[in-house]
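Example (one chain per record):
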Amino acid sequence: MSFMLRKSMDATTIHQPRVDPASIVAVASGKGGVGKTFMSITLASAFAKAGKRTLLVDGDLGLANIDVQLGIAPETDLAAVIAGWVELDDAVTPVDGGASEGGFDVLPGRSGSGALAELPQEEVARLAAGISALSLQYDQVVLDLGAGIETNCMRLARAADKAVMVITDEPTSMTDGYAFIKVLRGYAPKVEPVIAINQADSRPAGQRTHEAIARACETFLGFRPRLAGIVMRDEKVRDAIRRQQTLISTDPHAQPIQDALAIAQGLIGSPSGIPLNG
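Predicted structure:
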């Protein structure tokens, strides 16, 4: 079934349209388990703290889990949108008061079902178009993609302006991350890939990981992706995920949060930094 945005929007629940669409930042990885969803949630929180109306989209069509990590129970989700039961803007769920009150909004997938894993190509194209239309209501959109290079993942990635590649120093993460960048360059050449090194043991180690990826891209793809930032390894991240809380809300001064804030600041080009408190 097809779906569309509501044509007559309730101003009490939907933001007034902006002249230009929001910047869409896709967060991607070549493989799972590298902290991609943590990065997506933290970037959304950071953009919100910078005063940006922010929407976080769970674009992992096979293994959606943003609602689980946030500890929220949305009334509806993307699966209901695709089925034609609700419209896209009806599936938006506020977090920490929502985008109009200093928090951010979430467009959740359906966790634990895999209902959207085999979504037909035309439906994914409509979803990407719907997200682009919904971005008119926001300043920033964070699109949490599924891991890997399957076709539907790349279709959603094409809607983005930038793709933050989350990579660790594991050889499989590095090779799969390079594969994603290679496919993205062919499939969506206008989307700029930037590198975020996650779970680094030290700054120099993170720099070496980036250098290895950048050198491979320079040698075989003819360009050198820039380093968005390095996020240090910290068990506080795992603990926050287990408690279904955002680390930025429980321990905003933790080093991984400081690192992610710096990445967000670079993405929005803010010279003054992002405040830790609303």
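Caption: DSSP finds ten helices and eight strands in the chain.
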